[in-house]
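Lab notebook, bench 4. Still working through the backlog of constructs that have no structural model yet. Next entry is a single chain of 169 residues. Request: give me the structure tokens for it.
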Amino acid sequence: MLRAYLRKKFPNLSDVDDVVQESYLRLLRARVGGSLRSARGFLFTAARNTALDVFRRRRTAAVEDIVEIDQLPVLEDRDGVVETVSREQELDLLAEAIESLPPRCRQVLKLRKIYGLSHKEIAARLGISERTVNVQVGQGVRRCAEYLQARGMAVSPARVRPAPETPHE
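Model written out:
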């Protein structure tokens, strides 16, 4: 099933067996960690992330290959069951990562990333300096990324860096 999923989802992936092997390795590592809820869902998520990593490494691919992907016939534009389950599991894992943070860090990160408050608003609400807010957001994002990576989820560096503070009027 995993090979069929990878061939359907990534028709230009030539290293399907390597991706399958890496996915099973990530599954075994996660099982050792003991925080695995759904082995099947984790396996498919790990396979998707591994395949995406392979494509990221091949960014020098010809433009024609990208055009061919866009021209593939699509029967349905919405996500399938595997993608939906995978996304839900990723969100659950992210929620676990946030909940694993120290209380102050968790509070600051939620106010910034979930509620969209500025650093200045968070500092005023919590009675701390803006610099402390900035440090807490940075630490929270890094710790969440480490938590996700330790559980087999690929996290790109762009997703790890906190968004710069924008002036708030």
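Notes after review: The longest helix spans residues 130-150. Residues 60-67, 157-163 have pLDDT under 50 and may be disordered. Flag for follow-up if needed.
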